[in-house]
Amino acid sequence: GKNDKNLYTIPILDGSTVVGIVMREKLMEFFSQPLGHALYDNKPISFLMDTNFIIAESNLPLENLSRILTDETRLEARTPFVITDKGRYLGMGSVRTLLKIITDAKIERAKYSNPLSQLPGNVPIDKEIDSLLAKKQNFYFAYLDLNHFKPFNDQYGYAKGDEVILLLSNLIKKVAINKYTFCGHIGGDDFVIIFYKNNWQSILNQILKEFELKVSEFFS
Fold first, then answer.
1. What share of the chain is helix, strand, coil (3-state, %, to 5)?
2. Closest Cα to residue 116, out of 181, 191, 180, 179?
3. Does the global pTM surpass 0.70?
4. Is the pLDDT higher at 7 or at 186?
5. Whole-number pLDDT of residue 195
6. 83 neighbors 93 (Cβ within 8 angstroms)
7. How many helices (H) and strands (E) does the chain have?
8. Contact assessment for residue 79 and residue 98, using Cβ atoms and an 8 Å cutoff
9. 95 by DSSP, 3-state: which?
10. Minimal CA–CA distance to 146: which of 128, 129, 126, 166?
11. Nearest Cα to 55, choosing from 26, 16, 20, 23?
12. How far apart are CA 45 and CA 31, in angstroms?
């Protein structure tokens, strides 16, 4: 292990529970001191381990983990984190790898988002549907568009039309975006909401109700 530059963190386990981590740098620092081996060879590993580390359950969303790790009050956030499954040790995670994955995902999202609403466009919508079909996962698919939108644009102009599209997209974001839905913007006044749970009716009714209340402001 001494020459393995990739081995920079060692988890210390008691059975299947992680009780601490040892950083390569700290270990090398102790043994590089004069009389280091004589002083520490027979010490237990618990003498060197760090017990102030971050544990992430394997089902924790990456965004939540990123918030924990980038919290400036947590100095240990710079060190690798432990990944567990119901408390049982699974592996170690790297902050650098996590931030790279999140950055790549954000770039991907921006690349295929609708420029007006910032909601996912056709490519992510297709990907999501393909993924659900491949997993044979049940879902409910709602297609939303605005009635009489072309005559509205002809009468009030495309800038006002964009404002109405933004009204609808902001309502979708406010009412429908949660971990049990996928919201997308095909283009123009066409939107989709994919529901993973049978809660579609109340959400769609709320969007319709709030839209009816707010859209009247756009008519003279």
1. 50, 20, 30
2. 191
3. no
4. 186
5. 98
6. yes
7. 8, 8
8. no
9. helix
10. 166
11. 20
12. 13
Q: In 3-state terms, what secondary structure has residue 94?
A: coil
What is the Cα 155 distance to its own chain's centre? Answer: 41
Helix, strand or coil, per DSSP, at residue 107: helix
What is the amino acid identity at position 21?
I
> Taking 80 as the threshold, does the pLDDT of residue 131 lie above it?
yes
Q: DSSP strand E in 61-164: where?
A: 81-85, 88-93, 140-144
- At 84, the amino acid letter reads T
pLDDT in the model for residue 52: 81
Judging by beta carbons within 10 Å of its beta carbon (0-12, 13-18, 19+), is residue 135 exposed, middle or buried?
exposed
Give the 3-state secondary structure of residue 123.
helix
CA 137 to chain centre: 21
Indicate the DSSP class of residue 29: H
- Mapping DSSP to helix (H, G, I), strand (E, B) and coil, where does residue 70 land? coil
In the block, tokens 């790790």 appear at 69
Cα distance between residue 51 and residue 21, in whole Å: 7
* Rounded distance between C-alpha atoms, residue 209 and residue 66, angstroms: 36
Phi, psi at 17, each rounded to 5°: -100, 135
Task: Give the span between the Cα atoms of 36 and 29, in whole angstroms.
Answer: 9
CB-based contacts of 46, cutoff 8 Å, min separation 6: 12, 19, 20
Q: Per-residue pLDDT for 5 more than 90?
A: no
Rounded to 5°, angle at Cα 143 from 137 and 148: 180
Q: Could you tell me whether strands 55-57 and 81-85 are parallel, antiparallel, or unpaired per DSSP bridges?
A: parallel
- Overall average pLDDT of the 57-82 stretch: 76
| Pair 141, 194: CB distance under 8 Å | yes
